[in-house]
Amino acid sequence: MDLSQIPRTVYFEQESLHHSNSFIQCWKLSGQIVQYLKTRNIKMVVLNGYGDLCRMMIIQWAKKHDVHILLRGDSNIHGQDKITGIRRMVKRMTLRWVAKRITALMPMGRCGQAFFDHWMGKHNLPSFICPYEPNYSQIRTCGPRSCSSFMQEKHFDAHRRHFLFCGRLIDIKNVDLIISAFERICRMRPNWDLLIAGTGPLEGKLKAMVSAELQDRIKFLGFLQFDQTIACYCASHVLVHPPSYEPWALVINEAVAAGLPVIATDVVGAANELIEPGINGLLIKPNDVDALTDAMLQISDGDTAKQMGSKTHEVLQRWQAKADPVMAIVNAANQYA
Known about the structure:
Layout: H1 23-39, E1 44-48, H2 53-64, E2 68-73, H3 85-99, E3 104-107, H4 110-120, H5 136-140, H6 144-153, E4 161-166, H7 175-185, E5 192-197, H8 203-209, E6 218-222, H9 226-235, E7 238-241, H10 250-257, E8 262-265, H11 269-274, E9 281-284, H12 289-299, H13 304-309, H14 312-322, H15 325-336
């Protein structure tokens, strides 16, 4: 296959793909994609997801025409026990149908592999670990000048230390638990503040939670552009990310690349790969404010955060050595394309 002849981005007439698409819409879009694959004699397709009629049509066509489908997905095993009854039966049947028609899997990590193994049952599909990755080089080039400029803009005291949450302000992220935990430890950690970067429907409710005495120590930063987010990492000392569930969480990759130790729940895909408990962060159970409080106390004790932060690059290097998404696709192409 001559990759130079394939445009980097291809748009199709009916490019919007949703679960609510009609059969005709899915049929038209899958037909356009299939025609593109046929005319270019493409022998391998990395398919992101399986959960709509269009993708399933492509999977079925590929099986009939000896085109290799590598299924990529960010689902993870956590939370699957909540799927019961008819939904559980349909999901199992769907994924076992898919397993018989694809060539290989491209999970994000161990939690993703466990997800596929759980729903697909016994299978012999090879796997190529293919995670989400940020622009690491951009994160690493954030220097003191950018960090200092950001701190001045946001009126940060350079002598204080900062817990950071970065993400959407929605229920599943459990930002309220972070605020509650910080309120519990604030007197024991008088030199620490809490930064909350992001916007969302819970912003007003979360701001109302903050007591008058902590108004100056819990700072809502609003939406940040990516360069501002990088500077915010550089100005912070610990990332706190305690959602009830999250398939991956790219924010953990970013924070680790910026040298931050991380507190996260063990139901987050990236946390299971990029946090080595006690080495560069802490893993806790979800929806447990006591566990979160203890973790924030532990990591903010003395030089603990600094010592853990010094180990983040080693942990990231170990992860990248076994889970490079570019090499995953290259290795798969060498085998199947």
